[in-house]
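*** Residues and shapes ***
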Amino acid sequence: MSDLSPAIEVTNLRKLYGEKAAVDGLTLTVPRGCFFGFLGPNGAGKTTTIKMLMGLAPPTSGSISLLGLPMPGHALEIKQLIGLVPDESLLFDHLTGGEFIEFVGRIYGLDRAVARERACELMDLFELGGNGRKLINEYSKGMRKRVAMAAALIHRPQLYLMDEPFEGVDAVGARLMKDILLEQVRHGATIFLTSHVLEVVERLCDRVAIINEGRVVRDGSMAELREGSETLEDAFVRAVGVDRSGETLDWL
């Protein structure tokens, strides 16, 4: 594994469901140490791509390499090096937040005492310490997202794959989570993030790829994507070919 290799390298990736291509010839390179935004309209193939990167869905064709290691041949080794926050936070509802985070640490091979200590520290870092005895099934959606992100951090991964990590999180919680993620990037980690909240992506990400109908239609730095005084939203709408500025309803 070379530190000079990209964090993510995807070539001609396809995923078919029946005759429909959810991802259709996707080629993408994510440099190490960057905050990378992966954007697209609903149904564009973002979650399917994330699932293939996580090893949850086998590609129909094409290649995936994470941190210089090819999938699926090195899947077990790769999983030790990445942190995952899926769109649906599938947590164990009958554990407390701290117990779940400790459990994830143990899965990644941490000693029991280390896993327990880090779980307590992460509960405090994510401002969940006051809910130490509350079961996860009593948590709000935003609290569940915090627990999922805390669990993704416990083994200090090199690469984070995050699908809509701020969905359902209030402004205070989102600000806390953003600050923690930016600190991880400053320490050399790579973050691959999908989000429908373009203002968040614009504020956090160094580079962005826009996907539409299973293919990358734009890819570059934030400055390269925007023209003049454009916002990321302007660039996104232009890239996916949607312009409804003149559409109105007479009765509305």
